[in-house]
């Protein structure tokens, strides 16, 4: 959601900024813009639409300059258009600002500035902030960094900002609160971005800016960080492991397809050093270092959004079945507002691919304030949620560029399953034989996913049949119920076909009224304790002429004989089946969306990282 890029150094800034914006396109956006300083002049260019539209717009413009900031906007205040696009000038056009996040008290500030004679060109909260910085600079006669400090002390909300000042080609001032910001350190140059993807091409040394911190990047190579309350901080330089090749499509037509096919490797990476088949052992340092917290926990609360919430539901089944500990799974957006009961002997597990999900981060802070122990499951090293939690587990699947999550979901399920099994082993609520059997099955998961991926072309052919559909129902039971919801989410995210996931038995409590010969029904009917009951549900659909697409365990004949289409997956233990069963659902959604000529990697209205509430 929104993207920030900045550069100061000896190179021409424009090519770096444009390429950076292209790297951030996966986050979702509806307009783009750039501000550059050249010969003391502050030049600003912006356009509604894609980065390519901005490039065409500036072809005949002066894009000289070795300092600049750039932005992709996802509309919050004001419709997507050139006027509301970033960067925004101050009234005098002395300052230009880009901003991710939301200034919650912008209306109050705007009213004050209107009384002071300020005139506004846009409908955005961002323009209010740049005008406030301008006002602070003038009325207090201070430098830009101090003006930013004073303005942010009055701003309520979330932000990552970068500011340029006309006539000052030696300095970028940036700040963050609740929205990510990272500085890349090169040789006599600095890079600025909302995540590391625009930076990896130039440097592997970064500084993650903390909440309520203001960073001044100077052309002479000096970086200064102070808090809003004027406490100076020493920059902590870290090395990023991301490679440039991970950000390329690698011959695939879309990032989403590439990331689906990466899952055998990414899951192997995620379990490396954690699953030891020879020693019959699972090792998670985040658990081992805090074993007593887990053993003494009376309850686990899992908080997440979207796909991560579905992974959390699967984790609930595993924790309760194996470790015999009660688990609640909460939408992060609801959790913080419903005055939840949180105890000091609770463990809160926060799940987020990006580690920057605003609602989940807010839920973490609430749970921490109540004294709970917080465990994070995230993919992006150094992101806000891992820094805010007491301990955790990185999923290590590499950058996920496609907006619709695929490899991150399977790795989240794997991480939660390993954690549940490790806790069960310590509590002695699982037999040694079954524990060892599950370790061996986990180790085989990447091989079994490779087997499923071999049917990609078959799925591509049959998916075309369903481009006509306006609605889908997905059904599953037990561990496969969250898989049904995740399959439905994937379809509606990228193909814009309405789809809903239900527990199979709940179909007759309402949704069965929708069944007719035009309604495709996807049923996850793999071998499980509830298999016979799912067969009965399929018979009910068949009697009403529904079109049945079934996902079954290889060798199944019963469901195969009563289904219109059958997708086979290898056998595994029931608790691990979600990782296998979701693969064909991801592929099916992908191929339906492609057949409908949808923008698979950047579906409309969606953002990869939801950094505002």
Please tag this protein with its features.
single chain; alpha/beta; 36% helix; 20 helices; seven-stranded antiparallel sheet; 27 strands; 613 residues
Can you walk me through this structure?
By secondary structure, this protein is α/β, with parallel strands linked by helices. Helix 7 packs parallel to helix 14 (407-427), helix 10 (306-323) runs parallel beside helix 14 and helix 10 (306-323) runs antiparallel to helix 17. It starts with a strand and ends in an 18-residue tail after the last helix.
The helix-and-strand class reads alpha/beta
Tertiary shape: globular
User: Strand count, sense and closure of the main sheet?
Assistant: 8 strands, antiparallel
Number of strands: 27
Q: What is the number of helical segments per DSSP (H or I, 4+ residues)?
A: 20
The Cα radius of gyration reads: 25 Å
List the uncertain runs.
none
Percentage of residues in strands: 15-25%
Distance between the termini: 11 Å
DSSP helix fraction: 25-40%
Which strand order spans the largest sheet, edge to edge or round the barrel?
3-2-4-1-10-9-11-15
Quick check: average pLDDT?
90
Short description:
The chain is of the alpha/beta class. It is built from 20 helices and 27 strands.
What is the topology?
Layout (H helix, E strand, L loop, with lengths): L2 E6 L4 H11 L7 E8 L2 E8 L2 H7 L9 E7 L14 E2 L5 E9 L2 H10 L9 H16 L3 H9 L4 E9 L2 E10 L4 E5 L2 E5 L11 E4 L4 E6 L4 E5 L4 E2 L3 E3 L15 H7 L1 H9 L3 E2 L4 E2 L2 H4 L2 H6 L2 E6 L1 H18 L3 E5 H4 L10 E7 L5 H12 L3 E6 L5 H5 L2 E4 L12 H21 L4 H22 L2 H8 L7 E6 L3 H16 L2 E6 L16 E5 L6 H13 L3 E7 L4 H4 L3 E5 L7 H19 L18
Parallel strand pairs: 18-19, 18-20, 20-21, 21-22, 23-24, 23-25, 25-26, 26-27
Antiparallel strand pairs: 1-4, 1-10, 2-3, 2-4, 5-6, 6-7, 7-8, 8-12, 9-10, 9-11, 11-15, 12-13, 13-14, 16-17
Helix pairs in contact: 3-4, 4-5, 7-14, 7-15, 10-14, 10-17, 15-20, 16-20, 17-20
């Amino acid at each position: 959601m929104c993207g920030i890029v900045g550069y100061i150094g000896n190179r021409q800034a424009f090519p770096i900024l444009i390429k950076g914006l292209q790297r951030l396109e996966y986050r979702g956006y509806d307009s783009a813009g750039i501000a550059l300083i050249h010969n003391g002049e502050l030049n600003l260019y912006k356009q509604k639409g894609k980065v390519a539209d901005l490039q065409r717009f500036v072809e005949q413009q002066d894009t000289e300059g070795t300092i600049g900031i750039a932005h992709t906007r996802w509309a919050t205040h004001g419709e997507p258009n050139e006027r509301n696009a970033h960067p925004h000038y101050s009234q005098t056009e002395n300052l230009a600002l880009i901003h991710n996040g939301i200034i919650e008290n912008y209306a109050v500030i705007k009213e004050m500035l209107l009384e002071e004679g300020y005139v506004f060109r846009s409908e955005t909260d961002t323009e209010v902030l740049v005008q406030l910085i301008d006002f602070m600079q003038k009325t207090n006669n201070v430098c830009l960094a101090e003006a930013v400090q004073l303005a942010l002390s009055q701003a309520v909300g979330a932000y990552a900002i970068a500011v340029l000042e006309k006539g000052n080609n030696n300095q970028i001032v940036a700040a963050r609160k609740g929205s990510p910001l990272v500085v890349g350190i090169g040789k006599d140059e600095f890079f600025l971005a909302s995540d590391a993807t625009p930076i990896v091409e130039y440097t592997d040394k970064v500084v993650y800016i903390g909440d309520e911190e203001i960073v001044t990047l100077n052309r002479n190579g000096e970086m200064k960080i102070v808090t809003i309350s004027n406490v100076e901080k020493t920059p902590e330089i870290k090395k990023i492991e991301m490679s440039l090749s991970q950000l390329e499509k690698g011959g695939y037509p879309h990032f989403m397809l590439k990331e689906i096919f990466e899952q055998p490797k990414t899951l192997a990476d995620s379990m490396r050093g954690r699953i030891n088949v020879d020693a019959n052992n699972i090792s998670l340092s985040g658990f081992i270092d805090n074993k007593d917290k887990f053993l003494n926990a009376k309850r686990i609360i899992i908080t997440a959004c979207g796909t991560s919430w579905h992974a959390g539901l699967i984790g609930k089944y595993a924790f309760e079945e194996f470790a015999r500990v009660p688990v609640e799974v909460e939408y992060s957006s609801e959790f913080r507002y419903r005055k939840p009961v949180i105890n000091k002997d609770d463990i809160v597990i926060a799940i987020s691919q990006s580690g920057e999900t605003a609602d989940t981060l807010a839920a973490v802070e609430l749970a921490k304030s109540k004294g709970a122990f917080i465990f994070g499951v995230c993919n992006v090293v150094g992101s806000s949620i891992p820094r805010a939690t007491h301990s955790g587990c990185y999923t290590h699947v590499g950058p996920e560029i496609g907006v619709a999550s695929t490899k991150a979901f399977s790795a989240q399920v794997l991480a939660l399953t390993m954690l549940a099994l490790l806790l069960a082993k310590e509590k002695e609520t699982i037999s040694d034989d079954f524990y060892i059997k599950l370790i061996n099955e986990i180790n085989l998961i990447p091989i079994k996913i490779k087997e499923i991926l071999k049917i990609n072309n078959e799925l591509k052919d049959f998916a075309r049949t369903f481009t006509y559909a306006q609605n889908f129902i997905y059904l599953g039971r037990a561990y496969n119920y969250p898989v049904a919801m995740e399959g439905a989410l994937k379809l509606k995210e990228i193909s814009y076909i309405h789809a809903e996931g239900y527990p199979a038995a709940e179909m007759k409590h309402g949704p069965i009224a929708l069944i007719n010969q035009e309604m495709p029904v996807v049923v996850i009917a793999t071998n499980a304790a509830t298999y016979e009951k799912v067969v009965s549900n399929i018979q009910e659909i068949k009697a009403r002429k529904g079109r049945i697409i079934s996902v079954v365990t290889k060798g199944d004949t019963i469901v195969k004989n009563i289904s219109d289409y059958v997708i086979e997956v290898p056998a595994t233990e029931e608790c691990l089946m979600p990782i296998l069963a979701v693969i064909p659902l991801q592929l099916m959604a992908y191929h339906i969306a492609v057949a409908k000529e949808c923008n698979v990697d950047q579906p409309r209205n969606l953002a990869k990282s939801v950094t505002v509430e």
